[in-house]
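cron nightly-structures :: item 1 of 1
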Amino acid sequence: MLDYDAQDATALAALVERGEVSAGELLDIALERVQALNGEINAVVMLAEEVARRKIAEGLPEGPLRGVPFLLKDLGAEAVDYPCNNGSRLFAGTRYGQDSAIYARLAAMGLVVFGRTTAPEGGIGPATEAAVYGGPTRNPWDLSRTPGGSSGGAGAAVAAGIVPAAHGSDGGGSVRIPASNCGLFGLKATRARLPDGPYVGEGWAGMAIDGFLTRSVRDSAVLLDGTHGADLGAPYRAPPLRGTFRAAIEQAPGPLRIALCDTTFTGAPVHPECRRAVLDAAALLEEMGHHVVPARPVAADTAGMMRAWTDIVACGAALSVRKAVAARGRPLAEGEVEGVTRGAIAHAAQVTGDRYLECVNIVHAYGRSMEAFMLDHDILLSPTMAEPPAPIGRFGHGTEDYVGYRTGPEGVFAYSPFTAAFNASGQPAATVPLHWTEAGLPVGVHLAARFGEDERLMSLCAELERARPWFGRRPPLMRPVEAGS
């Protein structure tokens, strides 16, 4: 009998290759998990079992993850065979005329895509409670808490053991927030490391990028090796890798200079559990031979960057809604988009062309300041979040106060003050699951590296995984389902 939970995606692919289990049997397990768990967590939508079985029958590509069940986020990753809601009633059931580059590369790896995972409308929240799904997505570690957003469904599905890895995307922390909340590994690669086309030239002025949520660092390395690189006509290219992500995780990074920040980047305190997590990680890194010193990027205008980020994202939300309404030829109906989106549209109407360009320049200036800070440090270590996973409802989309929702004292940036910094700077950043509260809630630790130094960052994350393994930790929600049961 196969112990599905004991294997990461890479190990499952090896079992398929050796003939010890079939792609169809793995798909059966994943679908049984959906049936058993999705009613409680509401993470998997747009099921496409028939498509998945057809692709298995036709013969999967001989890729490194051949036969492994996989889920796409219900936002982006456009694919002909997989309609998408984009987290919104306005976009429900959207179909695409061609595959995106990121999906085509995932398919070439031999993955068996059988559905999508929930996301907040337009991807603009740190919780996943979109009305189009009929209720909130819940955290498998505590059903009263959010798994995060915007890749919240992906985080919940992986944490619950439905799949060992899932697609996500990250425009302000949308891979790293749910990875932190769900006890998973998540990395945002250097800007332009992964393809955006052909549907998007650059997401949110270059701040958004695809990514993955995984239980093992190895799975993220394999997925990144299979998907990185510019697609046809890409406007930007990341610095070339020296080797592969898989090779990087098998090598020690060597002694690193690590800056420790146990407050926000503006000096505000964080929740005691988040501070405890990062201080414990710092002690572990010192035991591993790294040099850790207290430091924070005081020269970088984080508050100004957050305001610019808010304006840019409002304009992106407004543009997507406006294009959808124009394409169908009738005005927006009441209730088709949620309150925060209506607030974003109203705010975007006040953002002039001059202000938008100023915001892009502010974001770029922030990246220069962060890179200057990193001249004296190889890694910037901080909490991933300022608090443990938030209760369901705290970041619901009912409010139309878009600016307050993001920048208010109890808003998104107070809850998640670290992650968006590296979408703005373009630097690679990752969260590792090294800490759990006494109540059993995961609390991630955040690591960021210089622009283009993805391999060094992955090497360090793998070293931490070896020093303090987390793969065996499981939320209480999980119920084992064996092959053939």
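cron nightly-structures :: done
The chain has one domain: 4-467.
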